[in-house]
Amino acid sequence: MQNPSCYGSGLIFSDNPFSNTRHLRLHFACGGDGWSSGVHLSSNQKPLGLFVAAAQTQPLPPHIFSTGTDENFRFSGTTKDSIPLDAWTHWKKLGRPKFIVAPMVDHSELPFRLLCRKYGCHAAYTPMLHARVFNENPRYRSREFSTCEEDRPLFVQFCANNPDVLLEAAQRVEPYCDYVDINLGCPQNFAKRGKYGAYLMSNLPLVKSLVERLAKNLSIPVSCKLRIFPGLQDTMNYAKMLEDAGCSLLAVHGRTIDQKDQKTIRANWDAIKAVRNAVSIPVLANGNIRHIDDVWWCLEETGVEGVLSAEAILENPALFAGYRLSGGCVLGNGEIVKDLRLDQGELVVEYLKLCEKYPVSWGIIISHVHKMLGDWFRIHPNVRDEFNAQKSLSFDYLHNMVFRLRELGVASPLCVTHTDLHRLNRNTHHRST
Ligand SMILES: Cc1cc2nc3c(=O)[nH]c(=O)nc-3n(C[C@H](O)[C@H](O)[C@H](O)COP(=O)(O)O)c2cc1C
Q: Where's the DUS-like FMN-binding domain (predicted)?
């Protein structure tokens, strides 16, 4: 830090910036902003180390440089009241991501995340990882979790029902991500059998202890992805409980545990808005984001910080760059820009190249190809049948298949409107300033 305008030193009693149990209170004399100097210890905890600190007058909380026993800690904010401040400081440091790839088992893996990032996505979740298996099985770890330098900001999502197990898994990934996320929304039968995901909604004390354990012990913040309760007040109480337990960000899927069919049941944005108004930490909306119009609409309607997309972005990974599938291009006012260089085949080709660089299983690749080329296969089902019948696949085969489909004339360009381009540019400018 250059030219800090105030300094301090003392003992470290808690090294977690996102915990709500602070054992240390720092006040600085920083001319005119109401801070006084001193250190207030609120319990008789054993100190973790010594610190010296320096802070500039304006931005809070102060930056602190450790000279004590734990060289790796990061610290900002000091009291329970300052959790939202920490949560917002972190969120702003990440550039306030707005457009986010949702967690998807077998689908939000590294190559897909990188493809979406190239086309406008600001942040992404990994697929849900099973915390216990992650700890116990090195092959599962290396198969299911990979990342790289460009893959940030990144949420790593776990399912778990044991705080110790969850913490161990979280500590393995904390150097590689920006949030450790707890899956509180999976409604599938395997989650019911395993007693995790949305089935934790019937055991809120356990949910609280999962969040608290991470919040007190990780050096990065905890986020939760949750489903809503049928009753609005229950949903708001739930969100507030998560915030109080130390959660720094909520992604709210606006459907209940019984509303499993996200293609036919509309997500409840009113409930998302109510959560956004009930808590002080950043909130993201999930559900009903099919194209860029939905993104703008949802941001306006709910007032959330950002939106997640799952089903729709699988078909159109360029959704957050404003690209519409050709069916969505007819606006009738003649303002459409057709980008002839981009179609779903081109997105598949780019995805395949990323898979060659960052290998994933053929099962994952096959599923993405089906999602991205679904419209093309519907016109030429014989090509799909031949693809399905392959005993072993190669990248050459897949590239050639895209080429053949194009030769058959099925390609239709994705397109962007001038209005969206303008809005997206404004948004990019806003994020970088
Ligand atoms: C293929 C697939 C896999 C999913 N896997 C996960 C997951 O691992 N973790 C999770 O929290 N939600 C998972 N979901 C749910 C999505 O993240 C999202 O909440 C849901 O699809 C609603 O968003 P949408 O309306 O944009 O599809 C998955 C959804 C799909 C389609």
A: 101-323
